Protein 1
Amino acid sequence: MRATAHGSTVGNGGVRHTRGRRRRATVAAIAIFALVAIFVVRLVDIQVVQAATLNSDAVGKRSISTTIYGDRGDIVDTNGKVLAGTVLRYDITAVPRFAQEGYSTTDARGVKRTYSLEQSAQQIAAATGAKTQTILTALTANKTSLYAKLVGAVDVDAYDRIEKLGISWIYPVRTTARTYPDGAVAGNLTGFVGTDGDGQYGLEQEYDSCLAGENGSETYERGADGVKLPGSSVTTKKAVDGGTVQTTIDSDLQFQMQQDLDEQVKAIGATSGSVVVMKASDASLLAVADSGSVDPNNRNANKGLNLSSRAFQSSYEPGSTFKAMTAATAIDLGVASPASQEIVADTRRFSWGGMIGDAEAHPVEHLTLAGILADSSNVGISLIGEKVSKQQRYEYMLKFGLGKTSEVKFPGETVGQLRAPSDWDSQTDINSMFGQGVGASAIQVASIYQTLANGGVRMPVKLVKGCVASDGTVTDVPSAKGTRVVSEKAADDVVDMLENTIPEGTLKGMAPISGYNVSAKTGTAQIADAPGGGYGSDYIISVAGIAPAENPQYVVLVTFNKPTTLKTSFAAAPAFREIMSQVLETYRVKPSTTAPTDLPDTW
């Protein structure tokens, strides 16, 4: 019994020990499980719940977003030669936080060299052409900053010099700059861009939406030293380059026209001048030159010079160049012909008290309409013009392109000055027949002669052929549809009559252009700038011409403002002759093979 009892006691103790160990193991397991669960929950929270936020924070500390520039498109001439283009430039930027101790380099022999911050600034300045103090200021203004722009828009050579320095905390950023390879050539037409890269003046402004590129973006990661990690760049938005504006301008001809014009402005003491060269068949502008044109590369140094085109933007009283339009209107309406006969005195008085006179005193003459145009008689053209009502003449003026901007829609382009007939007084009614009391731009006057040269069909004036986008699509293509203004006979009659101007009219004494029949008309208009709005002693002189007369291909208009050495239209003759000769030679126009039309001037 004792033995049995003893064995029973031992057995119960073993059970208690076993249960205790199991309980401790269970508690430990529960504790471990709880600890693991805490880690798992925390891991899930970090990797799932907070993943986006934490990733964003981490990337924000090491990932940098930069702009990828879409290059601004080119403006080119009719042959594709660049008038305005975009060149590669670099902004030199740095990480000031890592620049304060300078930098070290190791050469090919393993020799290490260390340069102080001041020495580094000197090297950067020497490489870029900047001032050492400017570089130092940028690097020390905020010594803990991760970004500072040291020099803006350096060229490729400067970029190469910076790269050779091997400074770890400097990184160039690609950018662009606008350039005008031919300087002032067509500067009056291209305009320029502002500091923000937007177009200002001229075609840069008018076609800004075509030319402007669309910027993209990329991100890259930087290391602990703030330097970009190689191969870490990722494009987040692709940049798109701007389109190309294709003009009708011949840059070589434009250059020559500007040279000739500036020389003649100086020779006759004029304040300014313009030249328009237009193709007769489609009204394409091959040259639009203005004296003293701005160089868009250095416009701030051109104070006092014209920043855009007077040929488009300035309105003036054209004077006698309008007489060709008055004659064409009368012929088209059937009330006149080249042989129309008029008795012409040198002055004419009207019952309402007004008076007009010819430029020079002369005895009473028996002139045909051809003679009236050749002699440029104000009295004679008034006798022809009054056969047409003022409402009819006004409507023809509108059809010839007056009173509105040309189809070019050049920025700041003038509509001229053309009031409705109901607002004309008796003097304006008469004066408008010979180009006074109304205003027009040089482009509008050239368009009148293009219409006559093109058999009476006015074509939309063209300065731009179109905009070619980077993907090859073409927009802004001008209309090629003409509008008949006068009959072909009326236009041809006027062109034939204007052949008399050089041999026996107001350009008598100007040497003919050898081998070519040329139709021309002079203009001398007083400038309305006297006190009270009257006419002063200054003039605008001009010559408009068509060649070859029997097969018109080109129209040339030269205009000079306020000449001092000679105030008659003949002062414009040398420039007209030189320019028309160059146009015919440049485009290798075949000489005339028919005799000049010699219509009777008198009866």
Protein 2
Amino acid sequence: MAKQVQSFNAEIKQLLDIVIHSLYSHKEIFLRELVSNGSDAIDKLKFQSLTHPSLLPDNWQPTLRLEPNKEARTLKIIDNGIGMTQEEVTQFIGTIARSGAKAFAQMNEEMKNKPELIGQFGVGFYSAFMVADKVTLHTQKAGTNDGTVWDSNGDGTYSIDSVPRPDGTGTTITLHLKEFKAEDEVQDFTDAWVLKSLIKKYSDFIAHPIKMKGEKDDETLNSQKAIWLKSPSEVTQEEYKEFYQHLSHDWNEPLKTVHYKAEGTMEFNALMYIPSKKPFNFNTQDSAFGLSLYIKRVFIMADCKELIPTYLRFVKGLVDSSDLSLNVSREILQQDRQVTQIRKNVTNKILGSLKELLTKDRTSYENFWNEFGATLKEGIPSDPANKEKLQDLTLFHSTSSDKMTTLEEYVGRMKEGQKDIYYITGDSLNQVSHSPYLEKLKEKGYEVLLLVDAVDEWVVDAVKDYKDKKLQSIMKEGLDIDTEEEKKQKEEELKQAETILRPVMDTMKKTLENDVKDVVLSERLTNTPVCLVSATQDPSAHMQKLLSQMGREYSTPVKRIMEINPKHPLFEKMLKATPEQQTKWSEILFAQALLNEGSNIPDPVKFSQQIAELMVQAAESTKH
């Protein structure tokens, strides 16, 4: 057949322009596309040869080759796969024309920003025009002697001719590379180092060897070691470790390896690692996270956030799926049921592995918790579907011992008569473990959870109760820790104390009317004179502080309630003080209460002066 020259129609020109200039974010991806096509062609030949052995040439070995030529500025991508007939070349390369071209024309502007074509051979092939001003394809179908040459410069026409392929079965794509200016920042695709790097990045785990001529002999550029496709029993610990370091650039041993194959309606392979140490930039704003995504061993994207929830962002690893929906560039995942299913599977598997670690190796789990516990807890308020699993994985510091505890363990140790699970929030363990809010609970032998991670305020708001036990802040009003019998014994005592101290309480309330909601007697203090508590429905002081740091400050500060300890000798002295002294002491006590809860005092200089005055007065009184 004589060589034919044909014109693309207007719709194809328009679509080709989008592919070349808009569709791919990195021009280097053309190599991934063309190598993937070659690998697919080899797979098809191997499959068809199972029923038609004669299709395989003598001594056939599956191979992909790269042949760069610096002088001619060409790059050849060669495979010995299934090849194509001339009809198939016209059909497959032309698929770009029939893949909804009219619909494309109607949605042109929208598709420039969000291409939604399904990835097909034609589109991946045309990515070559991002880097080449002319592309030549020479192919020959297995089992035939007829070759086909197709070429085009991408500007409106292409030619097609019948020419036997010298190498027989397979396909050779020759790219006549464009001249790029230095400011275009395009790599030299005839450079051996550049090609090796790109194969390592995108196609290292392709099942077939990708070869290129080295200084002396042919060099295989890809490892072909997709260990995630093997059975876990076939992979050594050294191989797991080596791949973890390749993937994460973390030279520490991973704490745990999670390797499994999901089967059923959604099939994929996953190999994931829980690190033993937090990276130095783990919680920085620009820190990337997510699993690497592969399609049939081909690297598609790193840091794929869609495959894992944010609170598992410490997990390193990959997912390899053969039927995930992708757009034409293989770069942007469609938000569909398959992605959701993979994410759900991955999450369940990781949480199950952490539960196993907690149960079987508590020391290792506590090491994990010290590194990533605050991150994992973010899932309790953000992932209701897994809230119960996550709260069972959560460890807490407590007043019981230096050993951390689960909620289940806490409930198992609760004292007879204890109604609730008690907790306190703050900025540091040192601060909360010495807090005056603990005084009465320590006296009764009740354990208190010490919560010092920023996320804990949201965690306790999401959990609310555990095994029918309410989570109760000891920094809120209405702390009910006495038995009915104890309440009856104290009822008369409190009435008398309130009658006696009413003048002082009124003075304090008037003095602090801009700062507190009320002044009441306390049942939680035994040694400290005063404390501030939040009303039941109000945010804690710690929560207000956190929101302020996040730039979400309340327009009007939420006032708290001041509780005073009726048994503290200070108030007996205060009753005998002058009105002016009572006012000063009220201000000092309020500042002390703020410091005790971990809040800043509004006027540190005034507070220091007031304390100095009291010290002078105390010194003078001892002289007389």
